[in-house]
Structure formats: C-alpha cells, structure tokens
Design a protein that fits this description.
The complex is a heterodimer of chains A (about 260) and B (about 325).
Chain A (H helix, E strand, L loop, with lengths): L9 E5 L18 H17 L2 E7 L2 H14 L3 E5 L9 H15 L3 E5 L10 H9 L7 E2 L3 E3 L2 E8 L2 E7 L3 E7 L8 H13 L11 E4 L8 H5 L7 E4 L7 E2 L3 H10 L5
Parallel strand pairs in A: 1-2, 1-4, 2-3, 3-10, 4-9, 5-9
Antiparallel strand pairs in A: 6-7, 7-8
Chain B lengths: L1 E2 L1 E2 L2 E2 L1 H17 L4 E6 L5 H10 L4 E6 L9 H15 L3 E5 L2 H14 L2 E4 L2 E4 L5 E7 L4 E6 H4 L3 E5 L15 E5 L8 E8 L10 E5 L6 H13 L3 E4 L1 H5 L20 E5 L5 H4 L7 E6 L12 E4 L2 H12 L1
Parallel strand pairs in B: 1-4, 4-5, 5-12, 6-11, 7-11, 14-15, 14-16, 16-17, 17-18
Antiparallel strand pairs in B: 2-3, 8-9, 9-10
Classes of the chains: A alpha/beta (about 260), B alpha/beta (about 325).
Chain lengths: ~260, ~325
C-alpha cells in the first residue's frame, strides 16, 4: 500500500460489492447507486483537493476484488480488503467493527460510504463505524460535499428541507445521491465505469495495489465478532408466481383502480 | 419510541410510528414509552397531551437549549441513548426519516443492539416479536425474531405506512430526564425549502423510466400526474438524461416514496428503483415489454408504448 504524504487529505472509501442474492451471487452490477455516488465524491476530492483515496472492502476475494479493482481503475490510490474465512453473515455491527479497525490501521481524515446498499438497504454501517471511531457522522449527504480548513459542509434533503451542516473532521459521511447533473466527475466517470462493468475484467487487480489483511493484522479475533451473526436474521427466498393483473385498455385499468378504491 | 419534531410539534411520521408502537405494545402487554427532546422555550404541556392522546403510556421528556433543529446524532441521538439507558427497552422505534435513520443505526451500535431498517413487525401470542423485511427485489425475506437474540432491537419504520393512534383518554405518566452534556460536532448552517419534496407525500406518483425518451412523452406523464393530483418523478436513467431533475429522482438513496398508487411508465423495475418504493404501495406498470421484471412486482399493468397508452389513460381519468 502506498503511504499518503502527511499533508494530503486521507479519504477512506468503504465499498461493497452489490449482491443479487444474500449469498453474494448474481449481482447485475458491481456498485450500488449510493456507492457509486460515494466513489464520485472521493474522486472529486482527489481531483480538486489532491486527496489520497483508499478503497476498503470486507469479504472474500472472489466477491470484493472486482469492486476494489474498479475503484482502483477509476482512480483510487490504494485498496484494502479484509477477510477471515471463519466469519460469515455478520450483521452491521460485526462488519463495522472490522471497518473501524481497518480505518485506524490505514489512517483517515474523512470516511465516505454509500448511504445504503441497493440489496439489503439497511444503511447502518456508516453510523456504526462513526460510533466505534467516536467521530461525527452525517447520513444521506448529497454529492456536493465541500471541504475547507475548518472541516466539511454536507448538504442533505430531509423532511421537505434542504439542510446544510458544518461537520468537524475526522468524520464519516454516507453519500446518498447525486444532486446535480454533470457534476465534474460524475458523468465522465460513471460512463467509464459502466464501460468497465460491461468488459470482461480480470477478477483480481494487480497485487501491488491491493492489500489483503486478516483480522489479526487489525488486532481482532474471529471469536469476538462471531456472535454478531445471530443478529442478522435469516434470509429465505420468497416462492412467488405473482404477476401483475394486466388490463387490455386504459378504460379497463382506470375502472379497476376505481373499483379497488385506488382512484377517486 | 423516538419522537422527531417538525417545527413546534411531533412530526407526522413519528406519530404514525407511535401508532404502530401502540399496536405492538398492546399485543405484547408492554408499556409504550415515547421519548421527546425539546428546547426549554417549547410548550411541553401540549407535547405531553399530543403524545398521550396518540398512544404513549409513558413520556420521557428532556429539555435543553441545545435540543433545537433537525435531528443529528449529537444532541438528539445522545439524548435518546440516555433515555434508553434508563428504560432498557426491548424494542426502539424511530420513523425512517433522514434523522431517524441517522440516529437509529448509531444508537443500535452504541447499545450493541440488532438493527433492522423498515421491517414489518408481527407479534406472536406468547409475546414474541418478529421483524421481517423484503430484500433483493422482494425475492428474499429476512426475518429476525427478537426472542432469539435476547437483546434490544432498534428498528426504523417507513413514513406514510402506518396510521397514528387516536382518541386515548388515559393520562400518560410523564418522566423528566436530565440532559447529558452535549459535544456538538455537526451544526446547521442553513435550512431551506426543498421544493420537490412534495413527491414524498403525494398520494399518487407517476414515474418516468428509461422507456420515456422525449420531452413530449414526459409531458404526457406530467399531464397524467396533474389529472390524478399526483407528482411526476423519474428514475436514475431519466435524471442522467437530463429529462427529470435529480431532485425528482425516485431510487435507493434518492427520494423514497410510499404513495397509495405508483404508476411506473417505461421502467423495467430494477432493485435500485423499486427499493425506494414502499412495501404497501400498489404499483401500476406500463411497459411495452410484456416480460419486463416490473410486472412481477406490480399489482396492475398495461402492455404498450408510452405514446399509445398515456393519451388513453389521461382521457380515461379525466
């Protein structure tokens, strides 16, 4: 892993491979929407403020290396993956414990992540990592993040209001969404990424840029985290043959919606 | 139950969640405690009367000059943590607003609790609580039984999906809590109107998906939305094309909506899009591809192009 110069803003980007099923298989894309927005913010900070960006993921190489490789190709400076084969199905706090330990190991001024994943949609990792690191967090920020000498300014849309918050750094900022079309990095970079999505890419990035860590390197043991598996709950497939009631004409559709009291 | 405030009174989403809390507490035979944090200048008697009539058995009340503005972890989350330490709850509920999501997940981490975002909650005859949520394009259900884990569960509840309880006449017990010391690390610089937020509360949302290619087609959707008293929205693709502003995007991380009726026009039904539509919403899918995945999620549908279906639909509703 390349060490950032001391005066560079150290950004840690927590990423996660999008999953199509709870076992991690069958994802249609590599990154979820919020993770993509977080990557955009990280790369904007790299371009505009010379930030050093380290992408970090928790999980097996076969699942997470592809997302880290994408982050590296998109412009991140380094990538770290943490995994221990004894750990399966940890809940948000189990994962957050690993990420917080890794953040301390790598060093950070700002931690970015997706506000919530597209598959599980919990949105708990960012706040939990902030809690473990005892730093502030502001969820659901939009891509227009501002950084100055006093810290950062995050904007979010909440309850019919647009709120701008001044946050002291170091901090954790889960990014929810794009708020502006053609933000400097957004368009070009996401198109690049999509092109990468479509190409058959090697599953492993070049070894010199990705650092694989085990729990021991972070001062953790599987025993202290294993119990978090029980808090995740069990996922089971829904057996359904559901199909929409398809109506032949617009009049039939509207009549049916009125009958079902969905339209006046 | 954490009560978020909007202006000088409890937020509607919190009263809805309090209504769901009432249902759960009644079926468990457990007390429902509402926690509310106010500044000293606010009307505490009115707050107590609202929360009592909306179902709270006990009201934990904290007042401090710092407890103003929209909820952020400090001071509101740390205040809630102080209350949770006192009550030692089985279940903590928050409305899944921006602030509720912010506070809920961090509170869970501080308590070492389980955290479940926007589940449906069932109570069994022996007092068991089961939290279930649909994931992975609703192809999977994740289920957590609270008695299996013997620890606090923190859950957020979808705004717009529950009814506030009403008409309770019993007096709630009021307990005043001392505020802890707050080290505020995030403070509000400005707070402006979000003009397109009406989408989040509209009874009907008409959404343009990738199948909507032109401004003329989009205008048809807008006419339909107007005729139904609803709002126009777009998927991520439409926002990327510049046809719909990002402030009107429905998608995971963007606007999350739970209207009565959601009319998706030319949308395939990706997880990133439909993950932001409430579980109780009835979806109408209009798509030219009869095999589009959205027909497996929608309740009603029509197969056809925007240019064919929309004018007929506008005529039928007018």
């Amino acid at each position: 892993m390349t060490e950032p110069a001391r005066d560079r803003l150290r950004v840690l980007l927590m990423v996660r491979r999008l999953r199509g099923r709870p076992d991690g298989s069958g994802a249609p894309e590599v990154l979820g929407r919020c993770e993509r927005a977080a990557l955009t913010v990280a790369l904007t900070l790299r371009a505009e403020r010379d930030a050093h960006v380290t992408a970090i993921a928790v999980g097996p190489a076969r699942r997470e290396d592809r997302v880290l490789a994408m982050a590296l190709r998109a412009g991140c400076d380094a990538a770290v993956r943490v995994y221990d084969k004894q750990l399966h199905n940890l809940d948000y706090l189990g994962i957050a414990n690993i990420l917080a330990a890794a953040a301390n190991h790598v060093g950070f001024d700002l931690i970015l992540c997706g506000d919530r994943s597209q598959d599980e949609r919990q949105g708990a990792i960012g706040p939990a990592v902030a809690e473990l690191l005892e730093v502030p967090h502001v969820s659901s920020a939009v891509t227009d993040l501002e950084i100055d000498d006093e810290g950062l300014i995050a904007t979010r849309r909440t309850g019919g209001r647009i709120q701008r918050l001044r946050v002291a750094t170091p901090a954790v900022v889960p990014i929810a969404r794009f708020d502006r079309r053609n933000a400097a990095v957004e368009t070009g970079e996401s198109e690049d990424e999509r092109a990468l999505d479509d190409k058959p890419t090697p599953s492993r990035p070049p070894p010199r840029t990705l650092t694989a860590l085990d729990l021991g390197a972070l001062g953790l043991t599987p025993q202290e985290l294993k119990h978090r598996a029980q808090f995740l709950g069990r996922a089971r497939p829904v057996r359904t043959t559901r199909h929409a009631l398809v109506l032949p004409t617009a009049h039939d559709l509207v009549a049916r919606l009125r009958e079902d009291h969905l339209l006046e | 139950m954490y009560i978020e405030r909007e202006g000088d009174r409890p937020a509607r989403s919190s009263l809805e969640a309090l209504g769901e809390g009432r249902r759960i507490a009644t079926s468990l035979g457990a007390p429902l405690c509402a926690f509310t944090a106010l500044s000293p200048t606010e009307d505490r008697d009115r707050e107590i009367s609202i929360l009592g009539s909306r179902g709270a058995d006990q009201i934990y009340l904290m007042q401090s000059p710092e407890l103003v503005g929209h909820p952020t972890w400090v001071p509101f989350g740390t205040a809630l943590y102080a209350a949770a330490e006192r009550v030692r709850p089985l279940l903590v509920l928050l409305a899944a607003t921006c602030g509720g999501r912010d506070i809920g997940a961090r509170l869970a981490a501080r308590l070492g609790a389980a955290f479940v975002a926007e589940p449906s909650i069932e109570c069994g005859p022996r007092g068991e609580i089961v939290l279930t949520r649909a994931l992975y394009r609703a192809e999977y259900l994740r289920r957590l039984a609270a008695e299996d884990i013997r620890r606090t569960v923190v859950a957020t509840l979808t705004p717009g999906s529950y009814s506030p309880a009403s008409g309770r006449s019993e007096d709630a017990e009021v307990l005043a809590l001392e505020p802890p010391s707050f080290e505020v690390a995030a403070y509000e610089l400005s707070d402006d109107d979000d003009p397109d937020a009406a989408i989040e509360h509209a009874p009907v949302v008409v959404t343009a998906g990738a199948g909507v290619q032109t401004a003329a087609q989009l205008a048809l959707l807008e006419t339909l939305a107007e005729a139904l008293g609803g709002e126009l929205a777009g998927t991520h693709t439409l926002c990327q094309r510049g046809l719909v502003p990002y402030s009107r995007e429905v998608g995971v991380g963007a606007r999350h909506v739970s209207p009565r009726l959601y009319i998706a026009c030319g949308a395939s039904g990706s997880a990133g899009h439909l993950g932001a539509v409430g579980q109780d919403t009835e979806i109408v899918a209009i798509n030219s591809d009869p095999d589009a995945p959205i027909f497996r999620v929608a309740s009603y549908g029509m197969v056809g192009t925007i240019d064919d279906v929309l004018p007929a639909l506008i005529e039928a509703v007018s």
